[in-house]
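Q: Sequence in, structure out?
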Amino acid sequence: MYDVSALVYWYTQSERGMVMKGVRVVYATKTKHSKKIAEAIGKELGTKAINVTDNPSVEKIELLFIVGGIYGGDSLPELLGFVDRLDPDNVKRVALVTSCASKSQGQENVRKRLEEKGIDVIDERLIQGSFLLYKLGRPNKADIQEAVDFARTLQERL
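A: Exactly. Output:
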């Protein structure tokens, strides 16, 4: 079964010459911060950002952007499960984009699991997040733009 909205989105983007073949964006979120970041990256790269809870299939791609937050010191279980199901024959490289209130903790468990599978983690960008009142209002437009610029730079290197 096809997701018609995804096909329509892909078609309209490809008609405008905006689809970067071989690039996907997935995310996991509790607070919707990672969703906002992933959707902005997807829009820039001409692909739809997909929540890992939708069980996206990943077939033969050059670069996968995984966007997620740090909750209680770790990535969400749904994101870790998605990573565990990735086929290293289908994914060449991964870039991590991490929303974190401290802006100091990356997705170490995600990175470790990818590397154990032989999937190359080419870079990770930490984006300012928030927790309750700490850093309230983050990520803001500038933070999201930082993530988009990071993604565009990596995509251009392909």
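Confidence is low (pLDDT under 50) at residues 1-20.
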